[in-house]
Amino acid sequence: MKKDFFEVTDFTTEEILGIFDLAKKMKEKPSDYYEALRYKTLALIFEKPSLRTRTTFDVGIQQLGGFSIYLSPAEINLGKRESVFDVAKNLERMVDGIMVRTFGHDIVENMARYARIPVINGLTDFAHPCQAMADYFTILEVKGTIKGLKIVYVGDGNNVAHSLMSAAGRLGAHIVVATPPGFEPNLKAYFNATEAGKATGAKIEVTNDPVEAVRDADVVYTDVWASMGQEAEAEKRKKIFAPYQVNAKLFAYAKPDAIFMHCLPAHRGEEVTDDVIDSPNSVVFQEAENRLHVQKAIMYELMKNK
Ligand code: CP
Ligand code: NVA
């Protein structure tokens, strides 16, 4: 296993399935793991806001017998108050692992290059791998399988879309990403997922047609139209993305037992309507809870020998 976790494809298919297995056990009987990372400490660096990521990493490390230290955007000011190099060189002497949520993906990669301890990506502009790991774990829980399922992401070709594609590649799913023209996923993410998919039979597709994408889907997924850092574009995007709203009419093209997923936070009435996110097909809160179990398994695998 690699030292760090930047994107889902950093894990092999076997490693991902091993993490799912461990997460399942941790979810079923948390008390079996209360000492698993005893006295290990995780620094949580946040340069953007968070509810789920902060709570699940914080609670997760404590449930494994460790501690966390929360470093807010006001505290570190990565690269401005202090260089990424200096932050890494300090923290590696003080803690056993670092989780970073920031803007540039290169910041997380540099942090990992300079620090001897594991670095976990808690979201960058490019990827949100812990989210995708929890998402596919949830799909496995609900559907009993991943291979061959049609997973449709509708909306912005953003960090969440990239990681869902990467995971599809490693796990042999058929993912279709439907975005407005000009908002397609990054080509590097597309090629990375396609490359990973060669060994698993995954199919990675990108389209501008939300209806054709959602037809016969097993999973329909969406995310906000303007991500953190894109707030200034929010109004302009509302018009462009309107045909990509996941409402009851669009969702009806999916299979009758299709599930609805969203990484949250949701902007109800924008990318998703209440009748979909509050429907019996929606698994969004199960998905959010699974961040905890899956990240505990990831932390354990990366930090157990540190
Ligand atoms: N899904 C997710 O990462 O949520 P937060 O931004 O609240 O951490
Ligand atoms: N794409 C969103 C995900 C939030 C969890 C963002 O980056 O803001």
Distance between the termini: 13 Å
Strand residues, percent: 5-15%
Query: Largest beta sheet: what is the strand line-up?
Result: 7-6-5-8-9
- Helical region count? 13
Question: Please, what is the CATH homologous superfamily of the largest domain?
Answer: Aspartate/ornithine carbamoyltransferase
* Alpha-beta classification: alpha/beta
Label the CATH architecture of the largest domain.
3-Layer(aba) Sandwich
What is the name of the CATH class of the largest domain?
Alpha Beta
Q: Helical proportion?
A: 40-55%
**Cα-atom Rg, whole angstroms?**
19 Å
Mean pLDDT: 97
Q: Write out the distinct hetero groups bound to the structure.
A: phosphoric acid mono(formamide)ester, norvaline
Topology as a string of helices (H) and strands (E): HEHEHHEHEHEHEHEHEHHEHH
> What's the number of extended β-strand segments?
9
Catalogue the unreliable spans: none
CATH topology of the largest domain, anyone? Rossmann fold
Describe the structure.
The chain is of the alpha/beta class and 306 residues long. It folds into two domains: 8-127 and 288-303, Aspartate/ornithine carbamoyltransferase (Rossmann fold, 3-Layer(aba) Sandwich); 129-282, Aspartate/ornithine carbamoyltransferase (Rossmann fold), CATH 3.40.50.1370. 42% of the residues lie in helices and 14% in strands. It is built from 13 helices and nine strands. The protein has helices at residues 13-28, 52-63, 73-76, 84-91, 105-114, 129-143, 159-171, 187-197, 210-214, 234-241, 248-251, 274-277, 284-303; strands at 41-46, 67-71, 97-101, 119-121, 150-154, 174-178, 203-207, 219-222, 259-262. The chain has a five-stranded parallel beta sheet. The protein has a four-stranded parallel beta sheet with strand order 2-1-3-4, sandwiched between helices. Strand 6 (174-178), helix 8 (187-197) and strand 7 form a beta-alpha-beta unit. Helix 6 crosses helix 13 (284-303). Bound molecules: phosphoric acid mono(formamide)ester (CP) and norvaline. Residues 123, 158-160, 223-224, 227-228, 263 line the site of norvaline.
